[in-house]
Amino acid sequence: MRENLGDRVFNAANITFLAVVAIVTLFPIYYVVVVSFSDPTDYLQRKLVLFPTKWSFASYEYLLNNKSFMRSIGNSLFLATVGTACSLMVTASLAYAISRKRLAGRKIILFLILFTILFNPGIIPNYLVVKELGFLNSTWSLIVPSLSAGWFVILMKSFFDNIPDALEEAAKIDGCNDLTVFARIIIPLALPAIAAFGLFYAVMYWNMYFNALLYLNDYQKWPIQLVLQNIISDSAAGALMEDRLTQQPPPSEMLKMAAVVIAVTPILCVYPLLQKHFAKGVMVGSVKG
After folding, report:
1. Model pTM?
2. Is 38 a residue whose pLDDT tops 90?
């Protein structure tokens, strides 16, 4: 089919518009990366660096040699690994339980889960609960209140609903109990959904900021996002750089850009590993039911 003049003009205008949007969207990311790898002397001379004349790892060396910054990365890694594992265990167990029609009180539990989606208690009640549990100023204050999300439970339940009951019945005939069926049959079948929700939880824990700001007073327990906010705002430079190095620090803007790159890189590395399961897990869990 031949294109007429109007179609050609429309396609050209559409491509031009999308190209402009792409440039506007990607330029801040490009600028952050370029500035973080710029030479401090070159940056101070030019300020606006579109392409560095000399590449340097000075900003990264300064941050990675700082104990406070590295400790915050370790705190975030602990949150992302332990928190994600605990959340997946709770979410998958709860979703599988309410997907079985023989569960007593199933409708009541499902209603309570839906209630948590519609109504949020707010900051003060959550803070009081964490305080009464004795989790204030503890890393577990960021994990226990976020162990599960009602919406994720509903989506994973819809995934489990599509697993035939005949598989469970056949396993029980072979002598398996409920835990064995769940661990050896249901979990392997649900790997796409678990991978998708695992990525959601990992991103949530890695980006944990507001809860850390509320519950953690000891800066040695701060995650990377809270430290990053302090670097960007320069409001807690003293706390961050408790072990100031003898070397001259790079310009603050370069440190900010390097910190942003370091904070984003782990999630960017995890996503490609789960990408093949991501679309399948989300689509199956949200469309069927």
Report:
1. 0.81
2. no
